[in-house]
Structure prediction request, 449 residues.
Amino acid sequence: MDSGHLRQLDATHIWHPCTQQKDHEVLPPIPIERGEGSYLIDIEGRRYIDAVSSWWVNLFGHNHPRLNLALKAQLGKVAHHIFAGFTHEPGIELGHRLTKLAPAGLSKVFYTDNGSSAVEAALKMSFQFWQQSGYPHKTKFLSLTEAYHGETIGALSVGGCDLYRRVYKPLLQEGYQVQGPDCYRCPFGLHRDSCQAQCFAHLEQTVQRHHDSIAGIIVEPLIQAAAGMRIYPAVYLKKLRDICDRYRIHYIADEIAVGFGRTGKMFANNHADVSPDLLCLSKGITGGYMPLAVVMTTDAIYEAFYGDYQELKAFLHSHSYTGNPLACALAVEVLNIFEQEDILATLPERMQTLSYRAGEFEALPHVGEFRQLGMVAAVEMVEEKNNKSPYPWQARMGLEVYRRALDRGVILRPLGNIIYFMPPLTTPKGVLDEILDVAYECVTEVTGQ
Ligand SMILES: *Cc1c(COP(=O)(O)O)cnc(C)c1O
Prediction:
């Protein structure tokens, strides 16, 4: 099909995710034909640097020879089979290796097939654990403002991004939501590199008052990604682990976006040297090839579900594509690549490339902050720099930057007024420089400098 025909059929039939479809009248979706390392290539041969890892999933670039081979090898055996009553080597090997790699104590692995469904499973596990462990009043979850945990009803219930949940509010489960860290606009006037997470007091007060009814606390460790790559210090997680222990509450870590090296360490919790009770992983787990997710948990939680069938304690939760062997085989190869190519050791140099122009960005009159952790960085555009007032959302400043960057061959999908970089971990230095050059030009143009 030629490009015109494809675009016409897309406009007629396809409802794209997280999109006001009317925007397509001026900016239609671009038909991609193939990928090549850092690049996506459209059917007319135009190349775009994928600076957002295709919505935070791609780890090692597109069309990766080793991942392609791993997928083909598994495809020659079996593409999918039922995972209840049956099991398979890629799923077993992946589970085993994840338990070696993850923060200590996470010895059990439950498969689901996307991030939101992993969050749902973790919430249900936590809830059911307390039902079966003599604490039936622990039925609620505590979450943070601006949190993002996915779009299904349960995941949205613990979300804090008003944009995604406002209309669905009558459908959502009640819980406790507390003010999360907001380091750029810190209400205590502190800095994330030197503070002691004084903002933890918000959470602490709510826990002290309501711990009897709290099953778990769910957070995105160190980076509230969908909120605009809001980065906060590791000491917050230490305090969180501590308070969860003190009040018998599960710490549920949603590392769906930040796991697998994004923060410079394998998992964000490694920065704080703490282990959650439940850990959700997805996105990068297959290198960005296929949907797969896991919930990892402890022996203690697992054992509360273990018993004779008649006790009715089992975790009766499943998805049709649970533990898909193709996805598991890819994930095993992702771990092989991490190990054999020593990916984590290659990151510091790239992290430096990503951040060395921070000062230049922050010198722009409408850039409030350039923040970075590991291989994630963000530029927050503000209308007034001295009082940090945001541009009105209706101005769609981020979208303007996006359009201009696209013309220059870089994909910089914004989050409101925030332009962020979350490139594949293997993005070459020259490509990182190009991303930053284009971002700098576009931000300068759009903010009128
Ligand atoms: C993307 C994301 C999810 C949801 O994952 P999906 O696969 O899109 O359902 C949940 N939590 C976080 C932190 C995410 O970034």
Observations:
- Residues 114-116, 119, 148-150, 220, 225-226, 254, 256-257, 282 surround pyridoxal-5'-phosphate (CB under 6 Å).
- The chain has a mean pLDDT of 97.
- The first strand starts at residue 32 and ends at 36.
- The chain has two domains: 31-63+343-446, 69-340.
